[in-house]
Design a protein that fits this description.
By secondary structure, the protein is mainly alpha-helical. It has two domains: 87 residues, Endonuclease Iii, domain 2, CATH 1.10.1670.40; 95 residues, Orthogonal Bundle (Endonuclease III, domain 1), CATH 1.10.340.30. Helices cover 57% and strands 0% of the residues. It is built from twelve helices and no strands. α2 packs across α12, α8 crosses α9 and α10 packs across α12.
Length: 220
Amino acid sequence: MPRPSAGSRVRTVRATPKIVAELAASDPVMARLIREHGDVVRRDLRRERPGDAYGALLRSIVGQQLSTKAARTIYGRMLELFGGHPPTPKQLLAVDPDKIRAAGLSRPKIAYLRDLAEHVQRGELELDKLDELPDEEVIEQLTAVKGIGEWSAHMFLMFHLGRPDVLPVGDQGIRNAIMREYRLRKIPDAKRMEKIGRPWRPYRTLACLYLWSSLDNAPG
């Protein structure tokens, strides 16, 4: 398996004292969350994440609608088919789909994995160049792959590319946290979330880490 190129290295959201102070000053609720969960978020930001963009997307597809434990187990079984490493697109397309199914993946997920491999192999998705694109174009390219929706694209932006100003409006955890912390009567829709999150800009990614931590359910 070739090493990831420089363009696919994982990046980390910045949380310098200045950035944290600016975010805290933007919103009294966020200021409280930072006081209560700052240690947890700092610890999470120090955690290493896989640096291979292709492997990150494979893992995202495998983990859809599964618990973290189940996703980790099934992903590990799939890697065993390829010597314990994420397969290259060529390797994934060459293997019998039934062997991947035996690792615990559904037929639709196998189709999604193959579609991702085909997009990369044909050059329609140039993973090494995603870091050069604005958020909207990254989302557009990723969601052209079957099985990668807006939520998965947002997670990739936040946790692989380290983009600082992402608000995943489709994330149920963020929606629940906003409802609870901002004392709303019902789960907010995307428009309400955008309005509440406007003061957090340009650090909405970091704000989401505090919101996830408030649920004790940070993703990853």
